[in-house]
Amino acid sequence: MPKPLVKSIKEKRELTVYHGLKSGNWVHIFKAALQAFNQLGLRMKMTQASSKESANEVLAKVVVCGAREIRSQPEN
Question: In the predicted model, is pLDDT for residue 37 greater than 50?
Answer without folding.
Answer: yes
